[in-house]
Amino acid sequence: MYLRADSGSVARNEHMELRTFGLVSLLLLAAVSGVVMADHGGLHVTQTEYGGDARVQPNEETNTMYLWTTERFNATATVETGNASGNYRACLFAHPTDNSSVEPKELACQPATFEPGETRNFTFTDLSSPTNATTKYELRFVVDNALQSGDPVAEQTTNVTFLEPDKDLDGDNLNNRDEVANGTGIDNADTDNDTLEDGEEIEKHGTDPLDADTDGDGLRDGLEVQLGMDPTWSAVPLYILGVLLLGGLVAVGYRLLAPRVGRVTSNAGGATVDDPTSNGGTGGTTTVSTTDDSSVDTEFVSDEDRILQILAENGGRLMQSRLVELTDWSKSKVSRRLSTLEEEGRIRKITLGRENMVALPGHEPDGAQSPFEEEQ
After folding, report:
1. Beta strands in 103-210 (DSSP E)
2. Dihedral angle, C-alpha 329, 330, 335, 340, nearest 10 °
3. Tens digits of per-residue pLDDT, 154-203?
4. What pTM was estimated for this model as a whole?
5. What count of other Cβ atoms lies within 10 Å of the Cβ of residue 143?
6. Are 138 and 97 in contact (CB under 8 A)?
7. What are the chain's domains?
8. Where is the composition biased (Acidic residues) (predicted)?
9. How confident is the model at residue 281 (pLDDT cuts 50, 70, 90)?
């Protein structure tokens, strides 16, 4: 009976010991796991930079970095360890972005032993692009745990495009090397957005691929080419010539179509002048009328024609002094024009006392005709 009791107690004690051991083991395992996780706490890559002869420096802002496949490049990275300590590796890998089936290529690796709270710099020099790398890649700077699983514990990725100098990435008939030399977009066929590709502008038209309006005349290069114009020669002189021609046509049209203006004005209702031939030559007044509705444009009427017009509008004859008033010319100018008309036989000058009367043929006062006319 006691034996059975002792056996049961022993069994119970053994069971309790096993449970206690298992519980302690779990606690120890959790503690160890926590230490392992804590070893990597705060470890991170703060920055990566790439340089060297392979680094392409295009004159445009871009989110992609370019590297020549024919040159070597360098890589630097900065790591802050945080709470991490122990042995690690710092490596640089290249992986094509459009082909996930390709294994990342290791470009360089360095062992590293970290202490908590450190800032470590890593430098890789004389690096070359992967074989036949002519597309977009990811450059991954990775820190992994070399002594344990080897899995990455921190990394930073940079997008890069590897370029062959003699190839044409954007297909604008300008190779990559010339794109860099001209400052045009390596992956933009029309840098200035004028509808002409960069290669066409440089090789064919001689225009500036960085300026949509090379000649500065307000027309984009592509539009000038479509219109058959020279995009390197300003059309501003043509604009000015066109405006001048248009102005000239308007002026000519106005002169031809607008009412002709050439009015001879006098006192309203007419003016009175002494007429020594009326009333038997004893004197009197003769009303001299002028019209305000003359349709003769003085700009196209000669001085002689104007005198003839005034005479016709005033009964065919006037005193010379009155002609001076109506024309507003000098006495000498009126005298010269009358002499010309008299020589041509278009007027007659008749002396009356101290004054001259000017008359159209057939409008002379009685008794003023020539002796030849009286005989007839």
Report:
1. 105-114, 119-127, 136-144, 152-163
2. -50
3. 999 999 999 999 999 999 999 999 999 998 988 899 999 999 999 999 99
4. 0.51
5. 26
6. yes
7. 44-163 (2.60.40.10), 189-258 (no CATH), 271-375 (1.10.10.10)
8. 189-201
9. very low
